[in-house]
């Protein structure tokens, strides 16, 4: 544990961040009880999963901050949970439309725009795909594969790490770390692409259900948990973040990343409580309809 070597400001910082984590957990528990009581179980369980993303990441970061040697395990735990959340967010958008059958009825003559980020935002020449049961299956498969394969790859990384074959910051082409990281990156982009395609189609329909701020919070979790952590790790590997005994550059980079995540996830937890509660008791799945201009002429 690092706490034994901390001075007074360091202990105050650790205590403050730990308190923020505990408050985030309590806010989530209170929100989960509210959702469980007020929202039907089929949709409520998905929303509880999504709301749990920020407090879980905050908790794993707090554990990694207090016990630096556990960082690899806490990062892997947050990574597994993050993979599940991406799939849950896609399923939430389908549920908010009234389910798959109702979504197909609402967009019977509609088409998905697949030239969207993060994979094909510049490929404007790509055709628009009809909205059918089969295309919905492929979108759900795009996120489900990430929820399945990322835990498998993380488990493989832990097995190789315990055997001394996996070094997280070793980007040697002969080592497994580079190839596993690239494969996880490709799966991540594919899953985010599927969510982006669905959001682009339903964002007008679900505007009165606050889907835009919900998607914004989801995007912040993606950026902060993935991109921010990756950038800090690169800076630490390249010695841009200087060492501060007893911490090496890499340990200090991980240390800084965890502290930032605790503060950021605390804010997202509090904001999520406001966004996911707003007007839920006033909405009915089949009443909230604001079709896109291209879908106004389709039959009911």
Automatic annotation (TrEMBL):
Taxonomic superkingdom: Eukaryota
GO terms under cellular component: membrane
Keywords: Membrane, Transmembrane, Transmembrane helix
Topological relation to the membrane, as annotated: Multi-pass membrane protein
Localization terms from the record: Membrane
Segments crossing the lipid bilayer: 12-34, 46-67, 73-94, 137-161, 176-195
This protein's name: OSTA protein
Species for this entry: Myiagra hebetior
Lineage, opening ranks: Eukaryota, Metazoa, Chordata, Craniata, Vertebrata
Name of encoding gene: Slc51a_1
